[in-house]
Amino acid sequence: MKYRLIALDVDGTLLNDDHVLTEKTIATIQEVHDQGCHIVLCTGRAPDSTLPLLQQLGLEGTMITHNGAATVYADERGLTLVNEFAFTVPEIEPMLNYVRREAIHFDVCTSFNMYIERISDYEKQMYKKFLITPKLVTSVSELGLPIVKYTLFSQPDVLDRVQQDWEEQQLYGHLRMIRSGDLFIDVMNPIANKGNALKTLASSLEIDPSEIMAIGNYFNDLEMMDFAGLGVAVANSPEGVLQAADVITSSNNDEGVHEALIKYCLSY
User: Which residues of the chain does CATH 3.30.1240.10 include?
Assistant: First the structure.
């Protein structure tokens, strides 16, 4: 097999719009794995909400989580932190003041936990969909813990305004602000991305980039798609992601991951 490692984005790529992992996709991933290929889920999710999907695939191994900010190994003993790119809460205090004033929902994440200051039924449904159980605290400013990701959740027009304001004011300072979905903005360590995490992992496994295929659907997938020997975009990706990809597969609702694995890994 040409590819020794397959990096898979989860939401909008591996899962369909109903957040379902289809049986056909599971079977194809298992076949690729059984032929000696590493399967690595690369997601904006936390480890706890990624692990059930790895288990559904019947696999153990490394997961790149929090958009590359935390790499975790999962086996029968549980979760072990392999690497993280962290920052401190004081570094995001200007942005915290902004979202509190504007009543925009946010959470902050350590590698293994998520913290929020308030929650409505709308946010509860979102967290339920992503298999997340956040911890409610009075103020995240008092946590005193290393943070790997700070996320805003709101409607696209609200986040468009936030993105413009923060860029004009350089409110995120030396940190990195990315749009990880229509409804999400993430702020992270400037070197934290899926590409850098994948590069570190590949080096530890002695796998050349030419032996890696990465499949994604959004702008937070671009670095890993660029690092991989073959960068694949599912058809439901935004135009900028489609243009950046080496090849395009079917959409997440049409089992694009299954199609790409059949075409580029299992065809003889």
Answer: 89-188
